[in-house]
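Entry for the shared binder. Reason: the reviewer on the internal report wants the predicted structure included alongside the sequence.
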Amino acid sequence: MPSIFNDLLTTPAHAQAAGGGLLSGDGIMAVLPYVAMFAIFYFLLIRPQQVKQKQLRSQLAALRRGDRVLTAGGIIGVVQKVQAESNEVEVEIAQGVRVAVLRDTISSVITSAATPANDSAAKTTDKNA
């Protein structure tokens, strides 16, 4: 009876040969797929999202009157008043209808008043060139 219990309680680890470890060839090959998967996820998912968030933060910091914005609730409006010391922005969502929204709830800046509406405004005409 005691030999049956010993057979049941003996783990396969006791039967394996000693040696090797994480730094052996087999250990590195076992970890390599996980490292590769993390690298793929980082470059395809994590990094682009970080770049997008950084760009949105810079757009929100440069927010000014006349910018068309989209709020997280799906409302499109035009910025009417920006207070530098406050986190609130006054947005006109319809003719004569203005609401105060938090900067953090603006999900994107659709058009900016800082950029020209067409390419011809950015070009310079010089007859001597």
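Summary line for the report: Residues 63-109 form a domain with the SH3 type barrels. fold (CATH 2.30.30.140).
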